[in-house]
Amino acid sequence: MNILVLMSDHHRFDSLGCLGNPLAHTPNLDKLAAQSVRFENCYTQSPVCAPARHCLATGRYAHAQGVITNGHQPFPGMFTIAHSLQPLNYRRFHLGHMHWTDREMDNGYEPEVTAAMWRETMPDRVLRRYDWESDGRTRRTTAGPSTRSREEYWGYHVATESIRQIEEAVANNENFISWTSFTEPHPPFFPPEIYAQIDQAAIKLPGHPPPDAPVPHERIRRIQREWAHLTEVEIRQLIAGY
What we know:
The protein contains nine helices and four strands; from the N terminus they run βααααββαααβαα. The protein has one domain (about 5-45, about 80-240): Alkaline Phosphatase, subunit A. It is globular, with a radius of gyration of 20 Å. The chain starts with a strand and ends with a helix. The chain has a four-stranded parallel β-sheet. By secondary structure, the protein is of the alpha/beta class.
């Protein structure tokens, strides 16, 4: 038995054509969904990136594996599914963004090509532009088509290398687990121009809560304040870029 894990980042559940979103052009995912079992009432163990990924990789709750927020370290000796498959002589490769909080940790995968490794090849001007120098996050709220070809995107290289590894494993008659993780559609929202074809005028903006709605948690209010300056035009640009 072979295992292929495909993971996207910041991907809303309703941003799929197969779930009725008329603006989401996702033909390959729609085809996969049509041939598969869909879990439409599924909940993540954590709303935060690194804990959620570590939960999936280890099969443990966040409090049980140690990563309860971004930047936390897993407990020593934490096993992943790749460790479990090692005695069975599985070929185990991880490609793309996983948000491992300890980059030196043995995650059970070999080879492992992560987004953090790609980051180290980026010029200083790019790191400064997106503020990746300080904390690995981008606060850019702009969006629009990019002049880069799709072959220049990190996701393209993740996909092609994953395909190469799978084909090599099949040729060698090896069982494999391929953990293939894409950074898209995580911001910044600059898709290749060939994909930036959404009619922004057709985008329906989310409504505002009624005046008598319960006051949300302070954490949510803080996020709302960060985005309060955006105009409706900018919001449509962001949704289209996403």
